[in-house]
Amino acid sequence: MKSKLIRLVNMPSGMPQIDDFLLEEEELQSITDGQLLLKPLFISVDPYLRVAMSGGHPPALNVGDIIISRGIAAVVTSAHKDFKTGDLVMGYMEWRDLLLRDGADLVVLEDKNMPLSSYLSVLGTTGLSAYFALNEIGKPKKGETIVVSGAAGAVGSIAGQIGKLFGCKVIGIVGSDDKADFIKNELRFDAAINYKTTADIGAVLDKLCPEGIDVYFDNVGGNISDAVISKMNDYGRIVVCGTIADYNDEKGAVGPRLLPLVVYKKLLIQGFLISDYKERFHEGRAQLKQWLIDGSLNYRETIVKGFEQLPAAFIGLFNGKNEGKMLVEM
Amino acid sequence: MKSKLIRLVNMPSGMPQIDDFLLEEEELQSITDGQLLLKPLFISVDPYLRVAMSGGHPPALNVGDIIISRGIAAVVTSAHKDFKTGDLVMGYMEWRDLLLRDGADLVVLEDKNMPLSSYLSVLGTTGLSAYFALNEIGKPKKGETIVVSGAAGAVGSIAGQIGKLFGCKVIGIVGSDDKADFIKNELRFDAAINYKTTADIGAVLDKLCPEGIDVYFDNVGGNISDAVISKMNDYGRIVVCGTIADYNDEKGAVGPRLLPLVVYKKLLIQGFLISDYKERFHEGRAQLKQWLIDGSLNYRETIVKGFEQLPAAFIGLFNGKNEGKMLVEM
């Protein structure tokens, strides 16, 4: 039995290229005791994988490695006492269309009330990132103003809506008019800024939030963040979820100095790893699901079909190809 | 009766100059009910005053204002029921050699066991800044590595010693060999770096702390902080107490981007205002005093004599003229 797999064959310098990935085929071993034969149904592609390729996010990805990301798979054959054929399991898995695994770090998906893909999007680590990072780092209070960059993306789209549920004013920054319409009309953000058609983001922010910004939920970094951070109020909180604008920069990128602003405005700037909140995923997922069921939370997914499309879907993240979570369906 | 006073007559652009200050003389009004006639004994000069001149630290200082900073004064005459002649009081006061005040925000110095000046240095807001910011933001754990910039200064010299008391390895960055000797020999820092004679601070840090840096207690900002921050460990905490290197920069200074590092290393960067810990000053002062009494904490003061020297002493802060707290004695 053969398995297709995708390997990292060049360490991307700057923007990842299709040639950095190689599709191979391999004969699978026979299943042995304690193993599972899995058939992935959805595989998640995420910006953090670019960080993993620079060693900044576990598991680090090196040249020659088969890429690993989160996925949902069906158990085709089980030789493991905790899993049975037909189970759906979720966890980190290699980019293979068929794989042998032990059961470590795999969770059986018990709750099947929601669409399968949602467990990798709004109910997965991206939705949970929005929930925990906004709550625990951003600590928004009713009536405060939140700006979200990458606001139509997997994390930003959820973070902004949670901000609205907390009674905040929420402004989203996005990269197209379609995305601006999406976050205003479907996600009920108070306002949207298309950074690609806005010459002076700072001036627009001055108009949209003359009261200043209390929480900045940042997914992009770069010039957009410079503009937002200069408008922070005293004791503002900057949740640094990602800096996708910077991931593909060569070393040595410069920008306005932040530390003087940190002093002048008593700012908090913090990064996080969603797995640090692992013990509380249950709590976060229950709240997000409740909001989905009662209609107070919307989400969108960009689903690309075909195992071979994984590298292209991943690269698409850096070209703004997705609204909501980008997933690949086998 | 006449009072000398010092007024800000130009908003400094860049480094403050002697000409930005004007010494005047004024006839004092007669004391009225509820007032105190105070004779300052020590007045504190602090880098944050430069920030106040840019509106970034309360109370903001504008052109024409008499400078205000913390001081200790003797009550010459009291027409206020809560104060009596001969009391020593501490609080924010105008730069005058004799002044009329109501009693608001003045505290009678009850504890006179320690040298008077120490209540404006190690037992004052600079010592308390070291104590609370290191504890509450830096959260050092035994065995961790702390780097302190401005390590011979009023706050840094105390922060580094507290780090040692917590069982950390502490490296200080200073601006002269004398200061390096001071922090190593008198303050028991593990190592000192004289940034003025060190071409590559990063390389020296690599040698001194190959295990990386867990807490950076920053008083200076600028290039020194760039070098330190690039060596932070995952989940490192950066306490931004001050960025004296940046205070006199014209707007538009640039440096390496920090947000990617915040993401990659899950860093925390936080500023603070010591008055936010006001309710806990008693606790902090008691601990600092205990350490002074049992000999585990040393401190130094740079005391300039003469009311007229206030502007020069203030400017001296930006030229590294002080070891420990800079104070002016009347």
TrEMBL record, chains A, B:
The keyword 4Fe-4S does not apply. GO terms for molecular function: oxidoreductase activity, acting on the CH-CH group of donors, NAD or NADP as acceptor. InterPro entries: ADH-like_C, ADH_N_2, ER, GroES-like_sf, MDR_fam, NAD(P)-bd_dom_sf. Keywords: Oxidoreductase. Residues 16-328 form the Enoyl reductase (ER) domain. This is NADP-dependent oxidoreductase. It comes from Chitinophaga silvisoli. The lineage of its organism: Bacteria, Pseudomonadati, Bacteroidota, Chitinophagia, Chitinophagales.
